[in-house]
């Protein structure tokens, strides 16, 4: 059985931020070249949809992963790979098939205000590839070659990700956020309390 050759044909198209234009990348196209315009508070969970489309004449099997481009002098804010999850991680695209994925960014509760994952807010713009540090990567190869144990060439794309963590302007924001996240539970408790009060009044 031949060892699968993971030829690194990751096309480093780290260029213009495009929100909805499908960009051909080898045998698979993607509708976003950058995810660098994110804002949130510590503790927030940000979810962004991203779509892959097969442009090949055969099925492709692949996966998503995160990547940090280490640069001397960087601080801990540049590597946010642990914040990021792509759901689902693995995929198979049949000929002409389109699949949607969710990029979930979980900002830690203890994250301090500032820019994370890049050294400049315009890191997603053309000519600013040097400002980027954290990426998500999709890479795939011919499904038949992978399942048959033959030589398979992977191709894909690095997509930069950054997050601007905002300062908490209102000390009540965590409380409000907690109420919003548990509104159903709070409503049920309120209904139970009202029913108990009514029952106690009837007994009197």
List the helices and strands and how they pair.
Blueprint: E1 9-11, E2 23-25, E3 28-30, E4 35-40, E5 45-54, E6 60-68, E7 84-87, E8 90-93, E9 98-106, E10 114-116, E11 134-142, H1 143-148, E12 155-165, H2 173-181, H3 183-203
Parallel strand pairs: 1-12, 4-12
Antiparallel strand pairs: 2-3, 3-5, 5-9, 6-8, 6-11, 7-9, 10-12, 11-12
Characterization of the model:
Strands 1, 4, 6, 8, 10, 11 and 12 form a seven-stranded mixed β-sheet that branches. A five-stranded antiparallel β-sheet has the order 2-3-5-9-7, with no helix packed on it. The relative contact order is 0.24. It is 18% helix and 36% strand. It has three helices and twelve strands; from the N terminus they run βββββββββββαβαα. It has helices spanning 143-148, 173-181, 183-203, and strands spanning 9-11, 23-25, 28-30, 35-40, 45-54, 60-68, 84-87, 90-93, 98-106, 114-116, 134-142, 155-165. Mean pLDDT is 84; it is low at 1-25. It folds into two domains: 9-168, Immunoglobulin-like, CATH 2.60.40.10; 170-204. By secondary structure, the chain is α+β, with helices and mostly antiparallel strands. The longest helix is centred in the last third of the chain and has 21 residues, at 183-203.
Would you kindly provide a brief summary of this structure?
The chain is an alpha+beta fold. The protein folds into two domains: 9-168, Sandwich (Immunoglobulin-like); 170-204. The protein has three helices and twelve strands, in the order βββββββββββαβαα.
